[in-house]
Specification:
The chain is an alpha+beta fold. The protein has one domain. Strands 2-1-3 form a 3-stranded antiparallel β-sheet. The radius of gyration is 12 Å and the shape is globular. The relative contact order is 0.28.
């Protein structure tokens, strides 16, 4: 899976995480997404959606828990 080319390289994105039948919607910085996807690829314990849409809706969502952990290498 690649994340390049279809969402902005900076700013916020809407991340939807499916854990069993429960959906969690978060806002995360675009810089954290490649590391999140890489981490997810090591052991796929959930389903992740990156949603394209109105960035204004992202402001209403909570931030991805521990988002800062995905900002490093």
């Amino acid at each position: 899976m690649t994340t390049g080319g279809w969402f902005p390289p900076e700013g916020d994105v809407h991340v939807r995480i499916w854990l069993a039948d429960v959906v969690f919607d978060y806002t995360a910085t675009a810089a954290a997404i490649p590391n999140l996807i890489h981490d997810w690829g090591q052991k796929r314990w959930c389903t992740i959606e990156l949603t394209r849409g109105n960035i204004d809706n992202c402001r209403l969502l909570p931030r991805l828990p521990c988002e800062r952990l995905f900002l490093g290498p």
